[in-house]
Amino acid sequence: MKGRSVITYSVYAPTNVTTMLRPRRQDGQSIIQEGFQIEPSVTFSEFTDIYGNPCQRAILPPGTVTITTEVQAQVNATKPIPNPVPEFVMIGDLPDEVMHYILPSRYCQSDLPEIGKLAMDIAGNFKPGYDQVEEIRKWIHQNVKYQYGTTDSFTTALDIARNRIGVCRDFTHLAIALCRNLSIPTRMTVGYLDKLQEMDLHAWFEVYIGGGWYTFDAVQQQTEGYRIEIAHGRDAADVAMVTQFGNATLDSLHVEVQLLEAEPA
């Protein structure tokens, strides 16, 4: 599978940025080839954040700046529904490193009464664990309209619960808040997906059940396809592709995804 993104900025003064555009190296995702280029060329450094995501730092010069990233990876298809389905893990049995994924975060106010009521209305009568998460995923897919230009970087899970319109980021934030309200550790994941009607960098969610992480996608009718993961964290604040500290405007984002032959089953 190949993924490519081209991001163009108008920079009005030297601007510090941190980017999260290179893919993770992890089980089920073998990076064959990748590229990262800033034009005009500038010096950049790299570090790994607290979630294990590869990050880059640079100072963008005034003018038009283009950041191009490419990756070719061998990836596994999204796991089908397992049989038997994974069960809920009691909070006392969760690994330490998973605990922060059951707490409220900036965009996912899982502790609010309105979120709690909605979570119970949707999944309260289902078996804790996989069944509850899948019911939440299906409900969001069926009840939240997908439409560009209806939300922004300030939109939260509570806003989506009320307005029921947004994009993949918003679908994911609502799913995370609802699952965490049911004490199911949930994180936001971003990257490339081959099965998108309108190609873009995509966001989905992963939950910790049955002793492992499982992928769910509320945008899709059913969770499927091949994915290259770039980053994961508590919500969009942790996985922003570019965070800028200065005067720059995003002009365009172009994304290409190609599914190559001979992908593993």
TrEMBL record:
What highest taxon heads this organism's lineage? Bacteria
**What residue stretches are annotated with the Transglutaminase-like domain?**
160-220
Q: Which Gene3D superfamilies match?
A: 2.60.40.2250, 3.10.620.30
Cross-referenced Pfam families, in alphabetical order? Transglut_core
Where are the membrane-spanning stretches?
none
Checking SUPFAM superfamilies in the record gives: Cysteine proteinases
| PANTHER family per the UniProt record, alphabetical | BLL5557 PROTEIN, BLR5614 PROTEIN-RELATED
User: What's the protein here called?
Assistant: Transglutaminase-like putative cysteine protease
Q: What is the lineage of its organism?
A: Bacteria, Pseudomonadati, Bacteroidota, Cytophagia, Cytophagales
